[in-house]
Write a structure and sequence with these properties.
This protein is of the alpha/beta class. It has helices spanning 11-22, 36-46, 62-71, 87-95, 107-118, 126-136, 155-165, 170-177, 181-194, 200-209, and strands at 2-7, 27-33, 50-54, 76-81, 99-102. The chain has ten helices and five strands; from the N terminus they run βαβαβαβαβαααααα. The longest helix is centred in the C-terminal third of the chain and has 14 residues, at 181-194. Residues 146-211 form the HTH luxR-type domain.
Length: 217
């Protein structure tokens, strides 16, 4: 059973999400919160598998709430937003969110996303993340990191990371680099482990922050 905490400052949205989730096999809504502060407290108290998090809320926004929940390692966070180029979304990904979905995402896609996040995967495609980061490079909102953060990687792993940051799947990377898909999967796993990253989305963020990849590259 996947246990979900629904966080949104609009009661109507919470009711809608609860109706969709409670009607799905293997998913249980264990609580609701109307702001980020309530979300942090309930995440600690209830220890849900996934927090479905709005980003624009009073008292404490979803970005800071995500940061605190992820830091406590209690739950994974899936951000819901109205606009996919929302600056709050980028900040939430930096804070450790497993990905983001638009609030008008079809119910079946929402359920699929929750199952993926609960299983440890990122749900937002790296390609969408790349488009988001392209939007904010040069605005001062992306925090630069020294390229020394990548020193643990081999040359081949850096090459694979560049392709991950382009939004390519393992199959596509295998074709580009003339490797087997299994080999690419192994490289991606080692990249995440060496750089202490949760998923491919965070790998894309790091590639931008270190300058390994740039808009339009």
């Amino acid at each position: 059973m996947i246990r979900v905490l629904v966080v949104d400052d609009q009661e109507l949205m919470r009711v809608g999400f609860r109706m969709v989730l409670d009607a799905s096999d293997g998913i249980e809504v264990v609580g609701e919160a109307g702001n980020g502060e309530e979300a942090v407290h309930l995440a600690e108290e209830l220890n849900p598998d996934v927090v479905l998090m709005d980003v624009r809320m009073p008292v404490l926004d979803g970005v800071e709430a995500t940061r605190r929940i992820v830091a406590a390692a209690s739950s994974r966070v899936l951000v819901m937003t109205t606009f996919d180029l929302d600056e709050y979304v980028y900040s939430a990904l930096q804070a450790g969110a497993a990905g983001f979905l638009l609030k008008d995402t079809p119910p079946d896609d929402l359920i699929s996303a929750l199952r993926s996040v609960a299983g440890g995967d990122a749900v937002v495609s790296p390609a969408v993340t790349r488009r988001l980061l392209d939007r904010f490079v040069g605005t001062g909102r992306i925090t630069p990191r020294d390229e020394s953060a990548l020193e643990a990687l081999t040359e081949r792993e850096r090459e694979v990371l560049v392709h991950v940051a382009k939004g390519l799947s393992n199959t596509e990377i295998a074709g580009e680099l003339f490797l087997s898909e299994a080999t690419v999967k192994t490289h991606v796993g080692r990249i995440l482990t060496k750089l202490d990253l949760r998923d491919r989305v965070q790998a894309v963020v790091l590639a931008y922050e270190t300058g390994l990849t740039r808009p339009g590259s």
